[in-house]
Write a structure and sequence with these properties.
By secondary structure, the protein is mainly alpha-helical. The chain has nine helices and four strands; from the N terminus they run ββββααααααααα. The radius of gyration is 21 Å and the shape is globular. It has two domains: 107 residues, no CATH class; 59 residues, no CATH class. The longest helix has 18 residues. This is Reverse transcriptase domain-containing protein.
């Protein structure tokens, strides 16, 4: 599989047998696509999480304490949906999918049908929650990337672009693609981000404290 904006077939032969060109395949549980985006993986994870919710629906919608049911949803359902989220590069459309999934969980847990015309603000008040799923992804990504930046490893060199070789760069119209580290939002650049990561305690406290804005939109 060749990952590119405009993927073209690649001819690779092993023992006179040509390898098949594919547009997507699963590797270590994550779905990789030839366009280099995470949208298909996110949709797949959300579908798996919804299926898991449906299997345990009687538990999540039971008369158990609300806080206990919320913990069960975050432990059992969110863990499925956010598997491998540390490496996701989230576009605006991906964020909308994830926020919709978050509201879907709370609505199903409270047995609120879409025909009831209950606004998202009211749902969040009923379950005593805020929009947290994007912050949870950002926190996981920060913990993982902080661990990588504190080590001298191949992955760190790949992130910094220190791998030997040449790449053909052609200027395209429009805005550049969003990068994985852009979600961490340090305007002072990668060097300052790397410097902050050296202090493990301050690094974690920084992202624990900064929950980011909570945006409430209709379902």
């Amino acid at each position: 599989m060749k990952i590119s904006r405009q993927p073209t077939p690649v001819t690779i032969k092993i023992d006179q047998k040509q390898l098949e060109n594919v547009k997507c395949f699963k590797y270590l549980g994550s779905l990789l696509t030839d366009d280099g985006r995470c949208t298909c993986e996110i949709k797949s994870r959300i579908a798996m999480a919804k299926a898991a919710f449906s299997k345990k629906k009687n538990l999540f919608t039971s008369k158990l304490d609300l806080n206990l049911r919320k913990k069960l949803v975050k432990c059992y359902i969110w863990s499925i949906a956010l598997y491998g989220a540390e490496t996701w590069t989230l576009r605006a459309v991906d964020q909308k999918h994830l926020e919709s999934f978050e509201m879907w969980c709370w609505r199903r847990m409270e047995k609120i049908s879409w025909t009831d015309y209950v606004r998202n603000e009211e749902v969040l008040i009923r379950v005593s929650e805020q929009r947290n799923i994007l912050h949870e992804i950002r926190k996981r990504k920060a913990n993982w990337i902080g661990h990588v930046l504190r080590r001298n490893c191949l992955l760190k060199e790949a992130i910094e672009g220190k791998i030997d070789g040449r790449i053909e760069v052609t200027r395209r119209r429009g805005r550049r693609r969003k990068k994985m580290l852009d979600d961490l939002g340090d305007r002072r650049g990668y060097c300052h981000l790397k410097e902050k990561a050296l202090d493990r305690i301050k690094w974690r406290n920084c992202f624990e404290r900064d929950c980011g804005p909570v945006v409430l939109t209709d379902y």
